[in-house]
User: Fold this.
Amino acid sequence: MARARALTLCLAAGLALAQPAAAASAAKPEAKTDGKPNAAAASAEPLPVDTGPPAPWRLLRALQRLQVQMAQGSTVAQQAQAGLVAELTRGFAAADAALWSDRRNAVAALALLLSGADPRDLRKLHDDGAFGDHASLVAAGLAFAEGRTAQARALLEEIDEADLGRIVAAQVALVAATLAARDDPERANALFDRARLLSPGTLVEETARRRQARLAEERSDETRFMRLAAQYARRYGRSVYASDFHVRLPAALTRIALAGKRDDLEAIE
Assistant:
């Protein structure tokens, strides 16, 4: 019941975003001058009101808001995420083909794939040429969602983040960092830093901090680990994904204490 309620609320929030500003303008009283209707206003054509389904990029905001709640510790939001991702995937697959000429919608498809969407429907759209000039964005998301990690990493790092929007750019950096962590930890750290800076207060930042702290721990970089661990504990200690961090932290602290690195331990106190 809680999951269904959260999913309904999130979809409703996404649908609300589809109401254009024109509708609000149409509700305002007619402008008057000296008690008479303004001639220009009277002769102007009424602004068109889009009554169609919300564009994919607008619907994506519902998922992003849900993920912020997860970073803050909402288990209800966590339970609703898979259902919302599936619902959005079906909505994207059924969207009017003309919508995909808007780069913002292709960016939304990329973000959805990086969020765990089933790639099959979007793969069909991609292979049918629906994304046009923006196909490379969706191709990067598909490579990740289909488990082609080496190709996904290469394609993600080729994307120009300038037109992605801050949160999706951060998400791209986060996934690229995760894929680079084993073979190129320095590059991964740079990408984790980028993801954190672009997305304060989001699940992307939460994940970047958590994964970067674990990378520092695995590389025995105690100074970086303690700094990241202290920041994570303060900001995201209640995240729905914090349990692994809390389980690993005591063992990491013990190793640092045994190594005699008292200054590093003071960072988390």
